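Hi L., both proteins are below.
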Amino acid sequence: MFEHYTFQSILQDMLDDVQDDVDKREGSIIYDALAKTAMKFAEMYSNIDILLRLIFADTSDGEYLRRRVAEHGVYPDLATKAIRKGIFTDTQSRPMNIPINSRFRLNDIIYQAISQISDGEYRLEAETPGVIGNQDYGDLLPIESIQGLGKAILSDVLIPGEDEESDESLYNKFVESLNDHPFGGNRADYRKKIMDIQGVGGVQLYRTPNGGGTVKAVIIDSTFNVPNKELIDSVQNAIDPIEVTGEGYGTAPIGHKVVIEAVQSVSVDFGTTLLLNDLTVGQVEPLVISVFEKYLEEIRKEWKKGDSLVLRISHLESRILAIDGVQDIINTTLNGNPGNIILPREIPVKGSVMINE
């Protein structure tokens, strides 16, 4: 709004107001005196422009966006810690029970045993919040010696850790809160309460799947994959515990019987023929697989919108053609067919990848 009030324009306006019989050349007394003032005015107008940007939610960011949306009861999701499965065996390769609160390291992340699943299997919580706790798998090293321990393995992601909510996501949540008006068990209310649970990345809701008073919620996890039973049970207990379903002991209103289910996946096989320049199929295959996986992930992120997912061969081909050394691409198929795939409710996951030259 004030971008035209630059140092030069302000200084020139001030010099124009000085009588012409006064020396106004650069370096003169009047020029130097006004230049300092003009600089301060330019800084002031610049700060006013920044302030105007920060007071409106659609142009704000960081702390100021958080303060703006908090006025409407919307708050960012903080980073959460991943819950992983740890498998422990003794020196004879038999399941071994370990003390609760035992700590183990894998690369730069420390995991702490918080509860037991079964003999030799424990829930481990990453001490570092964020998605970084979801990423590594393999052998754990105990921080303190545990007598008789043979091997410790970091296995499945039970409840994914999440990074702090981004400004873009927070703004979208703010707009949704203004448009949806969540209240008293309406669709927006269910969506908000389920999305607030750690590990949930999206939800689709279905009314009366088993008659009046029933609700089905299908969820995807925050890594945009099929959630495991641990996460499903966690969401079920928070919304409507099975043993007292419909009694209002969760966040669902009394009288609502809610069933939480995992989104179903469809394996997608990819095949294509490439014309390569100074590359072999072995060299280009990891790059093509990476492109394919990233494309499927982008598609899965769209699932929560509730629309059918469409895997388009043309989109995949254009991305593969952007790989250095790929000159042309023909005969691309998805699940053996040369056409797009439409998934009304499922999400796609990578199947086989076949590349011909």
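That was the first. Here is the second:
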Amino acid sequence: MKSNVIPPSAFRPRAGAADWMRQFQDWLCHRLETADGGGSRFRHEEWTHPGGGGGLARALQHGAVLEKGSVIFSEVWDEMSEPLVKQLQLNDRSYFATGITAGLHPRSPMVPISHLSLRYFEARTGEAWFAGSLDLTPVYVDVAQARWFHAQIQAVCNRHDAGYYARFKAEADEHFYLPHRGETRGVGGLHFPQLRVGPDGLFEELLAFVQDVGEVYGRTYCTLMGQNAHLAYSEPEKRWQQVRRARCAEFTLATGHPGRFEPATGYPEGMVLGLPPRAEWHYNHAPTPGSPEAQTQQWLRRGVDWLAPNNPAVGP
């Protein structure tokens, strides 16, 4: 433990962010357990951060629908490295951060993989911002469900700012992109790297937006679990799932990195919990032309307008 630990009280009062993140972890885990329906429960593990604070990791394994799922809460305070201070253009190394990270890997290749990250960061100087991302990574792209998913998150964005969806959807297309593969991780979602308290809105307004993003994530994903969990599949679909899981792992290991809002939490199992339980890498793998796998591959590109009027898909 460092001798110059910075207690939360050293910062401007932002307890509402941490309190909600903690409550949201409870809510999301309960929703996922109910949607899983197999009686499996999230296991709990408390952890501490070397500088101060810590968090609660919750993991579900071998569920009826979810083969592996994690929802991690963090509330930490510490001092940033000088390079990070310069990157963030701050005048003080002391920070407070709280957040939620979720990674969901279902058994069935017909149920999408999905990820969520919500964060609040505050420097001792009072500079503060919210950030987050959510995305849907289907093993097989169902265009109707992708359109429905984007319609749900667009509706949430429009309740707060009419420009949010187009802006944060474009950010997600860039963020969830594997440049060495020339493909997106899935059908995208939202990514907002820095919504600043003050210039971009009042604290209460930005927190309300983040709360709505969390709610729509839990609601839409649990809906898709219920719709797809009982769809039939065979060994070829399961093999394709392992390939798509490998792409998720590649994103985390090769291109994933702490964002501008997210200094390291000091929890070593955090990245491991978000990785798929099993994945396969095959040399020079390419799906058979005209196959369902090849059709999915064609959708994994930036700039798809899932809500375009000429898109023939209809929502579930």
